[in-house]
Amino acid sequence: AVETSAPLAVLGSDVTVPLVTGGEVTYAALDYAASAPALRRVWDDVAAYAPYYGSVHRGAGYLSQLSTDLFETSRKDVAAFLGCREDDQVVFTRSTTDSLNLLAAALPTGTEVFVFETEHHASLLPWEQREDTRVTYLSAPRSSREAVETLEKALAGRDGGPALVCVTGASNVTGELWPVRELAAAAHARGARIVLDAAQLAPHHPVDIAEADVDWVAFSGHKLYAPFGAGVLAGRADWLREARPYLAGGGASRKVARRDDGGVDVEWHTTAARHEAGSPNVIGVYAIASACRALSEAGFDGLVARERQLIATVREGLAEVPEVRLLSLFGDDAPRVGVLSFVVEGWNSSHFAAALSAEYGIGVRDGLFCAHPLVRTLLGSEPGDQGECGAPEAAPGERSLNAIRVSFGAGTPDEHVERFVRAVK
Ligand code: PMP
Q: What is the predicted pLDDT for the residue at 158?
């Protein structure tokens, strides 16, 4: 159903799966928010270079030079994709989780952190890993205006030391867009900095770091059609340059020498390499850069318009099922990316998701989506003891303690979304 020549064509649409009811069907991957399929373009780019892999930054040979060039050119491509300012650094990491933990480790001593309780655990939890940070958890707002007001109120009482606000651009549960520019303005007006968790935003909308006026952006390759194990933290260089290296080792150090007293003196790099010790994931990084180039060339207008149609199909279809309740923080009509969560009255969400898979060949996600406080607010319930991101045990027919999430993006055929709506009905 997907034209392979389309600029944002994805892989995996040829997978067929058996149904418990007999026969087989093409797999409908509707779990892009967890991991999106690879763009064909990314796969082709990786395939072209993977055979010619060499050690980055460490070899005089041709293949080392080639890999080093790919790695450093990728940094420039990612910087261009994000609209980075001249002094911004692009640090390559493993994922959004890794990027935010890196930033947490790089905070100046005693930084005050402000974070909404509605965040994904990756942006909610890293800050308290530092014993010297003070974290203020902000209550779930019920509109974007309330989000800005809540932040303004919280920042009004802060002292003059370093402060950081962490906010997601698009929720991984509701898909709702957060007022990033306004939150950045509120943060900066009070001398705080802001990091944007763009894990769900970047695959669906242009992210321009300078225009949004955020200090850092974090995202993951595997949600941006580049599933090869790399992520990005991009933004202000000063805190990163002054911080203790995230990983200590080769590549991060410029000069290491024994001291007369027997110890070791280390001069660390002040570039992004300071936090990238060890042999980097060149292929993962190159895949991200390839996805960034593909998205930039195709532009987001078509993607956004198409997603809007698919969101409308899902919303209209689900609205015809009285037992379905869509989960929204800012209202069902609030602008969102192609990520929607819901519960079905009288159904255990895990059983429902399992049935979508077994009977219709549809892959969605069920659970609490690593955002327990948010899902608790949305469901108005206390999630059970279901583990970090998993599904609680609830008997069929009991009130849902978790939710079902459907998500899509580039390359999603109409048929997948139509089949999903039919199946729910
Ligand atoms: N933030 C958000 C909003 C996410 O949706 C996710 C992934 N579900 C993450 C952070 C963490 O991303 P990763 O697992 O790639 O580190």
A: 87
